[in-house]
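Here we describe the complex-level prediction in full. Unlike the single-chain runs in Section 2.1, the two entities below were treated as one system.
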Amino acid sequence: MSGSIVRGTGRAAVATLDAVLDSRLAGDLVERLAASPLAARAVRGALQGPVVETLAADLVRYRVADRLLSEGLVEQATARVLEGEEFEYVVQAALESPTVERLIATAIESRLLDQAVVRLLESDDLWLIVDEIASSPAVTTAIRQQSVSFADQVAGGVRSRSRNADTWLEGRARRAFRRRPASPPDSGAG
Amino acid sequence: MSLAADPAARAVVHPAEAAEAAAAPLEYVGIVTRAIAFAADAAVVQIVAIAVAGTFALILSVLSLPDKFDGVLLVVGSVAYGLWLVGYFVVFWSATGQTPGNRLLQIRVRRAVDDTAPSAAAALLRFGGLIVAALPLFAGFLPILLDDRRRGVHDMIARTVVVPAPPGLPRSVLVP
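The structure predicted for the assembly as a whole is:
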């Protein structure tokens, strides 16, 4: 009997606590508390005290980092960050910022880059790569196709102009010799 | 350019000519296009001839032949050049109707009566006609400007016409 009374009282207390936590008053209370100087002092005191050392020691002792890594939480978190739109916004904002622009300009103008380029040009491996790329079938085929295409284009232009010149010259000659104009090409179709 | 559609003009032509006209295509190639094609062929002929002649001249320069062979070499060289010149045009005209210059300009020589390349004899006759047409200050080519089928004297002699040959033309059309 007394056990059922205790359980009923406990459930009522939990329900009351839930109602209090869901209430707007509780939310306002927490916000005020967090914004108060008291909260700031409490945090400052905690950071100045031995809590930080204790926390770090416990992190090591209980192998928190190993557990996070073994459970794949870090990978999941990383993937979520990289795939999320927020990361893209951050990168975009960083690239568009004047600070990054200045940093890139400084890096380009630095002697370090010049030296890197000079050393790269002096490297035999670079020219080996260039030779490989230049002699690759894909590149040679592309160059050949481009050359053939250009030659075709030039020949096509010559053909078109010569046909026009044929017509023009023939018209002049026929007028000079008082011959009737040439019939159009399809007049004899049948 | 089209076939002669004028009845009056058809009335004075020979029956064989009328048959040729009936079998002829609807368009013929004019003098400018043909001149450009011929110039391209002339360039090919001369470049090859100069290269070959230069090679032989270098070879002969180290052999130091007696002077009495100069005349013989001149005759041999002239004959070889003539054969090369005639052979170039005759072989290409009679084989496919297209020299390299013609191929560049997408034109071809064909018999007037049907759509086949001229025979070797006709091609040889056409080359002779070409020289005949060129001798009187190229006056033999003027009929190309006035003839309804754009034929020069050499075309009339060999009974050939020059027609467009767009790419992709069936080989059976090009080769008899």
